[in-house]
Design a protein that fits this description.
It is a single chain. Helices cover 49% and strands 14% of the residues. The chain has a 4-stranded mixed sheet with strand order 6-1-2-7, with no helix packed on it. A 3-stranded antiparallel sheet has the order 3-4-5.
Length: 418
Amino acid sequence: MIKRIYIKCKTCECPITLRIAVLSNDKPKYTFTCPNCKMDITVGLEIKKLPELSELTSLPKDEALNILYNSTQFNCIDNCEINTEEKSLKLDDEKNIINLMGEIPYKKEEANSSTLFPIFSALKNFGTHTIVSKQDTIVHENWTNLKTAWKLSLKRNETLSKTYRKKYIFFSSKDEDFDLDSEIYDFSLFFIGNKNFSLLDEIFKCTPTIINRNEKNYYEYIKFCHNKFSKLEEKIIPIITSYMANYETFSPYMVILKNGFDLDINEYKIDSFNFEELKSFYGECFEVLADLYAIIAGLNNLLNNRKYDEFLEMDMNKYLIIDKANKSNCFKDNLKLNFLCFEYDSFIRNSSHHSGTRYDYDKNCIVLEAGKPLKEKEMNIEEYVYHSLLIFREVIEANMVLLFYNHAYELYTKRNLI
């Protein structure tokens, strides 16, 4: 369903027609720029729980449509207000039409269309993968419960953590012996898709070979993972929280990527972009990924028939303190692991992490500044979001490796009574 709302910018009083898709997120939030003064505007929806589909279809058409239309509450969050002027209610000047379509990808040339229904073009280009699934409808509720359970567990409050874990709804089939790690792993699957999961699975299939070579080396590695686990998990939570807070920004590209389609960032539109919330996102992901690379580097050593802490030219203690830009060098040529470092750009990181990123409203682009001497690079919004999404996925995937081997340590110690 598309809901049409008439607002005006508080800064310049420009009338704007919003066309908002009612989709899976029960509280979507969008930030966009006024077409006239270029100041940010933020709006949101609150979607009430609807009757069952069978109940809706049994009602007269007009009554069912009325229930659907009134199931949403529109909120002016920042720099806008409802436009009640009669002359403006008839205004549909295309330059003042803003389409907000959530997780449904659509093309840039349709951005100001008054007749856009992106589900049809998305179905044509990407098939049924773009239809909202059960996973989409529960992802926000799942994250709220999982985040609370996760934080409580890190604070050693396992009793209360278990209460929130029981509220978690598994995306995949539920393991009978599930624990918090299993729930975090299951939630992570939402972001990566079948293609990248198969790459992770190829890593995990190497485990029996590693054990057969030298079980003691394997045990030392999974113990290392376990010792790193809590501190690394504390850093993951804010990253996912930032992603979920900007869900409407990332989700159109995520839908395309996780279903294995090629993404042309010059073709598809980003509806929502809050620069202040996202200007440091890439740098924050980079920092956490650099820390997670100790887990990947140790695994790379085992795959090369060395101890987990034995590198070609250093030991683990030295590796942990080398420049973060070089952390992936030791495994970037390993075909089983290098998909975890395809997106690891130290220039974007240095700009994003050290406040060298700004938004040029005149050019409608991101300007990155970093290096000595200072260098400048311009990116359009879509490109910046794309790179941010890629490094976020690498954080999720590297953390899934950590989850797998931390879980392996816990099982190993139980079986061997260590």
